[in-house]
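#lab-general

N.A. 3:47 PM
ok so I finally got the sequence cleaned up, no stray characters, all 151 residues accounted for. can someone with queue access submit it? mine expired

B.Y. 3:52 PM
send it over

N.A. 3:53 PM
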Amino acid sequence: MPWDELYQEVVMDHYSRPRNRGELPSPDGEAELYNPFCGDIVRVQIRRDGGGRVEEIRFQGQGCSISQASASMMTEAVRGRAVSEVGRLIGDFLRFMRGEDGEASALPGDLPALGGVRRYPVRVKCATLAWHALEKALQAGAPESREGGEE
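B.Y. 4:20 PM
back already:
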């Protein structure tokens, strides 16, 4: 199967059947970011366990298939991981999406399928929006809302 077909199939599967979508009861971290250029919005809620791991993660939002699929893939990739490991994964994913370094094969789960987005720089912000929201949710326990992302 050609890369573009696989990319489309995986992205569309996460878009049409998102994993971990919905409200998280009693989150201890939350952030909502908005991309004013395209209207995508993503809210990420997390709950950590007593051992420093992401026990539960959920997202809500609306937007293009890339932003919503990326949020779905992200939740699968980080659930159960240590917060420090999640921080490294966020950095790895953001660098990968900017084309700075990293191999697609080093990313867990379905995340390598988002590599095709790098050919369209304006869409990179769509793919990274949820990741920036996760970063903010990990930094502060209080809900936060703002226009988002550094991409």
